Amino acid sequence: MIKFIAAAMWICAATLGAAIFSFQTSQAPSDAGKAEVKPLLGGLDYVKTDVIAVPVVREASVIGYFLTKLVYTVDPAIMGKLSIPAESLIVDQVYSYLYGSPEVDFTKTTALDLNAFRGHIRDAINTRIGETLVHDVMVEQIEFMSKDEIRDNALRRRVSDMKTPKFGAENKKKDASSGH
After folding, report:
1. Which segments of the chain does DSSP mark as H helices, in order?
2. What is the C-alpha to C-alpha distance for residues 59 and 82, in angstroms, rounded to an integer?
3. Cα 165–chain centre separation
4. 159 in Cβ contact with 77 (< 8 Å)
5. What is the pLDDT of residues 17-64, one digit of tens each?
């Protein structure tokens, strides 16, 4: 019995010692002995937006949707000071740019000037905040879908759903009646 108690005490002491040692070694070294380390990529964070869908309105009707997914680099110190989410600012600027820029016309075959698009969004957000929050805007996805394309995609999904066999209550009744 004494050996059992001694072994239990030894295990507890070893576990406690290992825990204390791991906490002491995982703490950051003091500032006096610490060399200044520059963060990777200048300390900027990369933030991805969800897909932003902007309806394109011409002559009081929706002709399609502008879809984009953006990645932007931000200064984490300034980002922490924001009282509203940075993604809300990005979405607002994309809407403002597309609705406020007469040169953006998706009904024509001319291409969107991506450099102007990215630069305008970056500059507009930084001007609105009063500091350089966004350093770069990168486009992960950008496309325009007309109403007809959206309707065709929805129709294709319905047709494929009708062709897909359903394994529900009807099949269970057939199996039960056939003895399987």
Report:
1. 2-26, 76-79, 86-100, 114-129, 147-163, 169-178
2. 37
3. 35
4. no
5. 777 877 777 765 554 444 444 444 567 788 888 888 888 777 888 888
Residue type, 95: Y
Amino acid identity, residue 56?
V
* CA pair distance 93, 49, nearest whole angstrom: 13
Structure tokens at 92: 């607002």
Distance of alpha carbon 14 from alpha carbon 3, whole angstroms: 16
Structure tokens at 94: 């994309």
Q: Which residues contact 124 (CB under 8 A, 6 or more apart)?
A: 93, 96, 97
* 3-state secondary structure at position 47: strand
Q: Is residue 71 a contact partner of residue 138, using CB atoms and an 8 Å limit? A: yes
Give the amino acid at 30. Answer: S
